[in-house]
Design brief:
The structure holds two protein chains of two kinds. Chain A is α/β, with parallel strands linked by helices. Chain A is built from 15 helices and 14 strands. Chain A folds into two domains: 32-151 and 291-367, 3-Layer(aba) Sandwich (Rossmann fold); 153-285 and 369-397, Rossmann fold (3-Layer(aba) Sandwich). In chain A, a hairpin with a 4-residue loop joins strand 13 (370-378) and strand 14 (383-391). The longest helix of chain A is centred in the N-terminal third of the chain and has 26 residues, at 2-27. Chain A is globular, with a radius of gyration of 23 Å. By secondary structure, chain B is mostly helical. In chain B, helix 2 (39-56) packs antiparallel against helix 3 (61-82), helix 2 (39-56) packs parallel to helix 4 and helix 5 crosses helix 6 (164-174). The chains are: A alpha/beta, B mainly alpha. At the A-B interface, helix 2, helix 8, helix 9 and helix 10 of A face helix 1, helix 4, helix 9 and helix 10 of B.
Amino acid sequence: MAKNFFALFKSGLVSLLALAVLLPQAQAQQPIRLGGIFIMSGAASVYGKFAQQGIQLAVDEINAAGGVLGRKLEFRIEDSQGKADVAIQAARKLVFQDRVDALLGLDSSGVATGLVPVMPELRRPLIITHAATPDATGKLCNRYTFRISVNVNQNMMAAAHVAADSGAKRWTTIGPDYAFGHQSWEYFSKYLKELKPDVELMKETAFPRFGNEDFTPFINSVMAAEPDGVLISVWGGDLVNFVRQARNLGFFDRDMQVLMTVGAATEVLSALGEDMPEGVWLGTRYWFDAHDNPVNQAFVKAYMKRYKTPPSYNAEGAYAAVYAYKAAMEKAGSADPEKVTEALSDLGFQAPNGEISFRAGDHQAVVGPTWGRAAAMNSDYGIRMLDPVRSFKGEDVTPSVEETGCRL
Amino acid sequence: MPSIIAALLNSLDIAMLLFVIAVGLNIIFGVLNIINFAHGGLYMLGAYFTYTLVGRLGLPFWPALLLAPLAVAAIAAVLERLVLYRVYGRHVTDSLLLTFALLLIIDEGVRMIWGSGIHVVRPPELLQGRVNFAGVSYPLYSAFVITSGVVLLAALWALFNRTRIGRVVRAAAIDRDMAQTIGINVPAVVTGVFAFGAWIAAIGGVVAAPMRAIDPGMGDKIIIESFIVVVIGGLGSFPGALLGALVLGLIHGFGGRYLPQINLVLPYIGMALVLLWRPHGLLGRRAAA
């Protein structure tokens, strides 16, 4: 028995040695690893779930077609919990422990503001797929950070156009009390004033805490100020709470233009169903029904087949980011992080929401949001559809690199 | 004037929900001597059961108000018998860690069963719409929340002060050994009290379901608010839970309306002031429950 064991041990040792010799050879065929950082727990975890599905779909499609540079793609997702410090820790783990070649994700402006400055230390490319703060490709911009999703400036430029065309004169806002809410109002005010110098941007604004459950006091105070138009940048579960409480208080019965900056997130629409009032303007970084191109048609079809629900903007951002990495790696002829980073800059490729490219000056994708009015219910999806729909072109809503404050 | 009345009514409906959660925390603390983090999870389970019964199975709201809390109470009784009883008599940090772990387990369990999506439940037909009250248009459902809070308050007061069950529970809270000696089955009382606290939390969850988004983070949010209530009112105090809830409700109702710039920190300022003035809370150190 003991002898047998020894023999086994010896042969094991020999094969281990053989493996060590062969390993450098095998390494060339190792998969390319992507690391995702999303909100996977708590109230906003549904956003992370959609992103994960988008990545999974893209990775499976690419692997089925032979991978990238003959290597398979693999991915791993870490939970940011929506907190900057947790996200930084997750990024370090992905890079140093799991040895990922590239990063993607980030669901909150707060997380982006914390993680973006750490990227030069990690030396991996990062494609932001959701977080919208202008700073990530503005004053905090760096060599490694890219953003494929619509940012606050782009979305607010489009919102300002919708607002200007609506004819409403007195505007106020209800938004979450952190960077996203305040910056949304700041840029909306700036752009709307440029388009329509005679509008009044009211002092009576409301910024409830993110994760606030009862919005009634804020809704009451905004209604008491009697605006003609309200910009609402509340998002996620908060927006679900807000809409239902506002509905109860008769907020939507007023003769008032209502713009929800990220209201057409399918995560929110499917929760609210018919409770989303008809006629309000809803913005989104991507609307599955608004892009008539083959890439989008194939994406929506494959997504619906697999997950039985239309893709949300977060699913699309994550899906497109995987394809952006594929394009960059093929352009660079390598998965080496430095070379991929270089290749991403000025890279143009076909995403579901159209032909997009990362500007060399600030690494922001030149993309535009979609806005539309909440219309009839689609009973198959259980969500309200948008009609009319306005898709904005990236060139029309993206401020110049000088304006962003980014120096690369 | 109408705006003040609106803020006041709004404060009351926030306060009543907080009271329902905090009073359960205090009852459990009074008898079991543990600070129950899992209370937020039990509240959330009440809301999710309501979603399943009303949103999925199409039952009316009223049977859900009866069934969901009973189901949660049963789960709580099992938890107490299997896990919680092991930490009685140990240092309070042990029970904090244990119930916090339970909260995390419930959070993840909810995500595994119901998914991470956001759900809503519609208010019953009877309670949709608005009423006019002193020149203020007020959602009928909020009026229902306030009414159920008051009814529960009265029922609990009567239970603890006017019935034999109440006396038995109070006896077990004041001196466990003596209660055991005079023939009270203390372990059964303890299980019953924990299940009862969970039942109240779940009622809060059912009542909250038609007005709040049901998502896997709702338990964490309410437990933090409820702890603020308990700290302000005094841990273990029945009237303290009411007072704390009213104070926090007023802070939210009027703070959001009139001091929106600092509404974020107001609850914590309120809590800090109370702690400086009365370290045991406004009504702390009274007889438990």
